[in-house]
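Shipment paperwork, digital attachment
Item: protein structure file
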Amino acid sequence: MTDTTALPESAAPADPATARLLAEAAGRIDAPDVVLALSRNGARTVHTGGGAAPGPVPRELLAHELGSASKPYAGLLLARLVAQGRVRYEDRAADLLAPGFPVHPAVRRITLRHLLTHTSGLPGLPADFYPQAVPRWSTDPYGGYPADRVVRAFLRARPRHRPGTRWHYSNFAVSVLGHTLAAATGTPWEVLLHQQVLAPLRLDATRVRPGPEGTEAVGHRRDGTPVPALDTGGFTAAGAVRATPLDMLTFLEAHTAGAGLGGPESTGPGLTGPELTDPTLAAALAEVRRPVLRRGLRHTHTHTLTWFHHPSPYGPVLFHAGATLGQQAFLGFRPDTGLAVAATATRRVHRADTFVATAYGLLTETP
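Attachment content:
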C-alpha cells in the first residue's frame, strides 16, 4: 500500500508532478517499508509505501535508524561548539580526551578536524573490534564494544598514515570525536547533541536510543526476517541517530534556509528563520556546507566537514547515506535551490540495491 501527502496538513494538496515522481521512485525500491520525503523551500511532499501492510503508526512518524547518516549531526555539533569558542578544529583529540597520557606521535597529531573528515589515519574500525563482532555480525556486532574500549583503542593506536595526508572512511574516528567532545565539555554525548543540535532545530522525534514500543521502524534482513534494534555500543557518534523522516526533512531544511535562496528564510513546519538567528547555529550551518577537501583520482571527490559534495545540473548536491543491520537512510539537499530529500527503507542493503541511487536521483535529476 502507498500514500502520498502534502505536509503540513493546512498546506495546498501535494503537487501532482512531485507526487508521481515520488511514487515512481518508491516503486524501484524493494523493501517492507519505504518513505520518500521531498521539500522545496519548505513545501513538503511525502510518499510512503513498501511490500508490508502499514501499521497503526504512519511510516513517516516512525523513528528510523540512520546508521552512518548520523555523521552530519555529529558534524553540525562540532561546528557549533567551534562557533561558540568551546573547542577548535585544530585541537588535538588526545590532549582533550586523556591529557598527559603517552600516545604514539601520530595519534598526538590527530585533531578534531582530522577525526570528522576521515583524514586521521585511523582504520574504519579498531583491529580488536572484529574478534568479538564476527560471531554476531548479523545480530549485534557493536553492542559488545563499549565507549571505554573505543577510547582505549584510540589511545594505543598506530595510524597507518600521517594525519591529514589521506582520506579513509572511519566509523572509529567519528566515534572518537564524540567521546572527545564529551570529555572536552564535561557533558555526555547524548545530552550534548540534544542541547546543541536537536533542541535548537526542534527535532523532537530524533534520538540516539530506541523509543517506546510502537514508535520505531523495524528493520529486516534481505529475506524479510525482522532484526532487533541496533545497539551501537561505543560508536554512538558514528551511527546511533534515529529520526522520523519528517524530522530528517526539518534537519535538512535548516541547512537550506538562507543558503543563497534569495528569499525569506523558511525551514518547513515548526521551524522558521527567526529560530536560526542564533549566530553560532547560523555559523555552524554555513560551515558544514563549505567544501574543505578533495580526494581521489585527480581530486574529483569533494567533501565538506561532514557531507559528500557533488556537482549537478542544478548546483552543488550535499548528501550522506547510512545503513544498519536492517535499515537504510539517505539525507541530501541542494543549498542553491532549497531542494531536500530524506529517504528510509526497512531492509538491509545488498549488491543489487537501488535505494541510494534512487534517492540520489531525486536530488540530482529533479529541476
